[in-house]
Structure prediction request, 334 residues.
Amino acid sequence: MPARRILTRLGLFIVVLWGAATLNFALPRLAPGNPVRERLFQMSVTGGYTQTGINKMVKAYSAQFGLDQPLWLQYLRYLWNSLHLDFGYSLTNYPTTALSLIMTALPWTLGLLVTATAMAFVLGTILGALLSWRKSPRFLNVLVGPLLALSAIPYYMLGLVLVFVFALTLNIFPLGGGYSTGSLPSFSPGFIGDVIYHSLLPAASILLASMGSWALGMRGMMVTTEGEDYMTFAEGRGLRSGRIFFSYGIRNAILPQFTSLALAFGHIVSGSVLVEVIFTYPGLGSLLFDSIQGADYFVIYGIVFMLVLAIAVATLLVDLLYPLLDPRIRTEGG
Prediction:
């Protein structure tokens, strides 16, 4: 790939991050009210304290969080700190930093949602390709209806159904949580098994709901690919059916799926908020939900920025890897 193209993509990557970071900074400040004052007032009400000295506390905390500075200086500090992934202190868990809360929840989200999304992509892609392949078993056509229905069901709705059936009615799986109450996190086989056991239901809701979309998308692309000249030529040469299916059919039809996969990985947090809330799973989705409820702006800043960063990086990687995935793609000077 020419160096000019790489530099152009990197430049767009930086512009996208800057624009997203600017919106992330500006939008919450358009809302009325002072986040520190609101949070301290909530604490005084729930804790039964009087409001004596609230103004002094607001002034002290505003100075601590930098909210008493001019807006342009707050913006410059925000951009500089974002480059170092320093999002400040949590308003609801002070003096814990927002980054430490994010890094604590991140492994749970990656372990559950990335694995479930990757499995749904692989299974859905292969199943969708088989549904359109002329030489595949006919009984697979029965799956088109269920896959279409699953693709229309949101994650959280399917999660509620799974909780009702397998947790409340059959009592096979726990209602929620990342591990059993009273367990101490460790790398022991018992704790790892407990974590996997608690993750099966939320993973199943994501896997089943998204597998239908992947299968239907791949089925449509394979129908188009089967009519191409190179497929007819490969069959005319007498190549084995399996080689034609994987090397000529899936290899060419899967390219749009990779683009969708990159966006799906980037949107993991936003698409999983309600799933993690339903199952009380200790990931980024639950952290974002709690932060919105508690008006913890700095944690919200951090999660949204990490989300935008994930989408931008995934899109950049796919764009740079496309010429390797498809040799037909030629760039200027390539």
Remarks:
- Residues 105-294 form a domain with the MetI-like fold fold (CATH 1.10.3720.10).
- The mean pLDDT is 76.
- The two ends are 6 Å apart (CA to CA).
- The longest helix spans residues 189-225.
